[in-house]
Amino acid sequence: MPRIALIHATPLSLDSINAAFARHWPEADLMNILDDSLSRDREREGELTAEMIDRFIDLATYAKGTGAQAILFTCSAFGPGIEAAGRAVQIPTLKPNEAMFEQALGLGRRITLIATFRPSLLTMSQEMEMLATAHDKDLELKTLYVPEAMVDLAEGRCEEHDRKIVEAASKLKDCDGVMLAQISMARVGERVQQQVSCPVLTSPGCAVLKLRQLVQT
Fold first, then answer.
1. What's the predicted TM-score (pTM) here?
2. Where do the structural domains in the chain lie, given as residue ranges?
3. Residue pLDDT, tens place only, 166-211
4. Residue 30: strand pairing partners
């Protein structure tokens, strides 16, 4: 069984990503690495610093040293750090939203990204725009931040977290696709789908299927 390292910057992503592996790749031998200071430091600093990037490289190096054949980072606000980590360890290393972005580009031009962690909007928007340019795709990307929803989830108010996201999604119009930015938002994907007429994408399933393909080919 291939060992897959899951590296988290918040414990909120654990349930959703492990559930996605149980559904799409139950044979994988998972190891979970958590540094929950990363998300706090990222929000406090307001940017991804060189020191944070070094921490991502250290985490990936540790994971590889345990025998991991691939790494999936579940934190969406650290794109450049994850890219640096992948270059350092030279094993398949995925950002949480890569596969979801690729699918979204096939849905149409008007895509909306909904997030519960504000810093992720900037990095994810930049990554999505770069991907669209690389694939010569016309993209009209809109972003929507849902305040306090992540705090609700962290403090156990799961239904309030879900309600806020669903309410925000219910106001969307003229979209070809909707993406839920945080892995922890996957729990509400079906309810968001009921609010919109376009496809709703969540990152866990997309990421697991892509990582499985990378490892097994």
1. 0.82
2. 3-95+205-216, 98-202
3. 999 999 999 999 999 999 999 999 999 999 999 999 999 889 999 9
4. 4
Architecture of domain 3-95+205-216: 3-Layer(aba) Sandwich (3.40)
Chain segment 81-123, per-residue pLDDT in tens:
999 999 999 999 999 888 999 999 999 999 999 999 998 898 8
Non-local CB neighbours of 142 within 8 Å, separated by 6+ positions: 110, 111, 112, 113, 175
Find out whether 12 and 184 touch, Cβ atoms under 8 Å.
Answer: yes
Domains 3-95+205-216 and 98-202 fall in the same CATH topology: yes
Task: Say whether 76 sits in a helix, a strand or coil.
Answer: coil
Integer Cα distance of 205 and 210 in angstroms: 9
* pLDDT of 47: 85
At the topology level, CATH places domain 98-202 in: Rossmann fold (3.40.50)
Query: What does pLDDT average to over the chain?
Result: 94
Distance CA 49, CA 78 (A): 10
DSSP H stretches of helix in the chain: 14-24, 37-45, 50-65, 79-89, 98-105, 119-134, 149-154, 158-169, 189-193, 203-216
Q: Which of 143, 142, 135, 72 is nearest to 102 (CA)?
A: 135
> What was the pLDDT predicted at 76?
78
